[in-house]
Amino acid sequence: MMERRLLDVALPGAVWRPSPNFGPRADGTSIDILVLHYTDMKSAEAAIDLLCDPASNVSCHYVVAEDGVITQLVAERDRAWHAGVSSWHGEGDINSRSIGIEIANRGHDHGYPDFPDVQIAAVIALACDICARRGIRPERILAHSDIAPDRKRDPGEKFPWKHLAAAGVGHFVEPEPIRGGRFFSPGESGAPIEALQAMLALYGYPLQITGTYDLATEQVVTAFQRHFRPARVDGIADSSTIATLHRLGRALAERSPGAAGATR
Ligand SMILES: [Zn+2]
């Protein structure tokens, strides 16, 4: 039975280290999001131990170690527990509709090292394979910080989204250079703030359109910067951030005419 199950679920080339932390996906959901994380642990092995510990209540489908070794913990058909409270395009329960990849990295609190090339090459190969098999669209490959901007910052601004997009994984637009000019920051109110919030929400971020640059707006702008304008991550909507957001909106509208911001 175990052998049969293994054949059914293990990705060729991945080490199979089953975690008990999974359940069934919610009825009626289809897998259409890929969530990328960093482990925030001192080693891939420590992260795998935690993700396999029944007391931790966390898991993911794959862990990619610094040396590019891929370990699979949960079968793709099952619901792993990686996204937590999160939302995209108004949909919650991201765990039911996603596959989660944890990328080994010590994280912001412990020096936040660069992601090694061999590790990124493995992430690209894995993501290409998953997206091709599952039909996951490039704009549905997201950071944990995108779907939970109020509490997450992984995989962070060092994650090479541009490099991934060049290899056919995910989407990216060239960020507008940072210059002076008008900017919006916490506490401001008015129509321009409302327009900014509307654009961020149209892209998919969980954000209420209040017309005030509140904490949630600052957190979403920060998440956007980590993904699309990584040169400065400060939560302030400067002209470079806004121009980059416009550019992203245009790129997505061109990809699916008449359906900018639509999920499918
Ligand atoms: Zn995460």
Note down, in words, how this protein is organized.
By secondary structure, the chain is of the alpha/beta class. The chain has 2 domains: 2-166, 3-Layer(aba) Sandwich (Lysozyme-like); 191-255, PGBD-like superfamily/PGBD (Muramoyl-pentapeptide Carboxypeptidase, domain 1, Orthogonal Bundle). The protein has helices at 2-9, 44-51, 94-97, 117-134, 144-147, 161-166, 191-203, 215-228, 239-255; strands at residues 15-16, 22-23, 33-38, 62-64, 70-72, 79-80, 98-103, 141-143. Strands 1-5-4-7-3-8 form a 6-stranded mixed beta sheet, sandwiched between helices. Strands 2-6 form a two-stranded antiparallel ribbon. The protein is globular and about 50 Å long. Residues 1-8 and 259-264 have low confidence and may be disordered. Residues 37, 144, 152, 154 line the site of zinc ion.
CATH superfamily of the largest domain: Peptidoglycan recognition protein-like
Number of strands: 8
Characterize the biggest β-sheet.
Answer: 6 strands, mixed
Beta-strand fraction estimate:
5-15%
The CATH class designation of the largest domain is Alpha Beta
Work out the helicity level. Answer: 25-40%
Question: Could you report the average pLDDT, rounded to the nearest whole number?
Answer: 93
Q: Any guess at the CATH architecture of the largest domain?
A: 3-Layer(aba) Sandwich
Through-space gap between termini: 37 Å
**Integer tally of domains:** 2
Strand order of the largest sheet: 1-5-4-7-3-8
Which small-molecule ligands are present, each listed once? zinc ion
The outline comes out as globular
Number of helix segments?
Answer: 9
